[in-house]
Amino acid sequence: MSKELAVIHYKTAMAVFKKLFDCRAVSGEELAVIETIIAGKYGLSSCSIFR
Question: Does residue 50 sit within a domain?
Fold first, then answer.
């Protein structure tokens, strides 16, 4: 998977979880954990500008 496609997939997944956060279905702590997991899945480092 290209880096560009990985970023698109990451941003799409995070948009869903951020919507859940806005609806209070996911806590801030859970969102942070989810973000780390999704970033790892798509190969983004913790210091990536896309996170």
Answer: no
pLDDT tens for each residue of 11-35:
999 999 999 999 999 999 999 999 9
Distance CA 28, CA 11 (A): 17
Query: pTM for the whole thing?
Result: 0.85
Name the token pair of 27.
Answer: 């806590």
Residue 12 domain-assigned (yes or no) = yes
Residue 22 tokens read as: 């806005």
Count up the domains in the chain and report the number.
1
Q: Are 51 and 39 in contact (CB under 8 A)?
A: yes
Domain contains 13? yes
